[in-house]
User: Which sequence fits this backbone?
């Protein structure tokens, strides 16, 4: 493993953290727009706002946007990781025990990506990083 420590990719690790956050936030935001506005089409139509799925859609839309921007990343990511854990155990796990059997791979991946973001932070390309740099001046 030591020979990879000097790899040019090591210098890119913080920026790739930002890219991971942006991509995950964008994809999650789309889950919210699909639930709330049926956009992009292909979902089950807009859900009732005052329902569990409506609440999930609000979390996905707002949380996805905040992650995309890198704003209050750590608490938002932790909240969304919890949402994905609940979604997995409420919607997927009762169908079958393994994610490959119950269609829960996305929920599991989002959950652990969000846990990672909660621990690692937003990366340098984020509003959180910009605010931190501005407050140090």
Assistant:
């Amino acid at each position: 493993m030591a020979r990879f420590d000097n790899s040019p990719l090591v210098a890119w690790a913080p920026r790739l953290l930002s890219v991971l956050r942006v991509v995950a936030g964008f994809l999650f935001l789309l889950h919210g727009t699909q639930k709330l506005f049926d956009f992009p089409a292909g979902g089950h139509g807009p859900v009732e706002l005052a329902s569990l799925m409506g609440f999930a859609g609000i979390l996905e839309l707002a949380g996805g946007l905040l992650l995309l921007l890198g704003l209050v990343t750590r608490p938002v990511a932790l909240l969304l990781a919890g949402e994905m854990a609940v979604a997995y155990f409420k919607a997927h796990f009762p169908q079958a025990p393994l994610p490959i059997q119950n269609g829960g791979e996305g929920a599991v991946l989002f959950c652990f990506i969000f846990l990672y973001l909660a621990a690692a932070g937003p990366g340098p390309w984020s509003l959180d990083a910009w605010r931190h740099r501005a407050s140090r001046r």
Q: What stands out?
A: The CA atoms of residues 29 and 105 lie 18 Å apart.
